[in-house]
Write a structure and sequence with these properties.
The chain is built from three helices and five strands. By secondary structure, the chain is α+β, with helices and mostly antiparallel strands. The chain is flat and about 70 Å long.
Length: 120
């Protein structure tokens, strides 16, 4: 919650008006996959697009160890006008490259254990 006094009394900065913007992607990989290899793939895919800016530097890091995947955050910077085109192109390229090298992109799943009750 943001108190009304802060909205009316303070300056609200619209970061989408900046010349550069950061794209935030999350790539989940299977727990059996090599995190180092996944980061190498992401690095190659992100830097292969000339719209990705070198300054500020992009970020690739392990964000969380979730229920079904290890989630890597991918944050390249680009010029404001390239935001959606680069976001969509890199998300597709990452999935295609992960598939090509056999990296698992997991989906949520649960294990169900059925117990037998004696006498029933």
């Amino acid at each position: 919650m943001i108190p009304n006094a802060q909205i009316y009394g303070d300056t609200v900065k619209n970061y989408s008006l900046n010349d550069t913007r950061r794209i935030d992607l999350v790539m989940g990989i299977g727990y059996g996959d090599d995190i180092g290899r996944a980061i190498e793939i992401i690095e190659r895919v992100i830097t292969s697009d000339e719209r990705t800016l070198e300054d500020p530097a992009h970020t690739i890091a392990v964000a969380e160890l979730a229920d079904s995947s290890a989630n890597l955050v991918v944050r390249p910077w680009r010029n404001a006008g390239d935001y959606w085109a680069l976001r969509w192109a890199r998300a597709r390229a990452l999935k295609e490259e992960f598939e090509a090298v056999g990296c698992n992109i997991p989906y949520p799943q649960s294990d169900v254990h059925v117990l037998e009750v004696p006498g029933r």
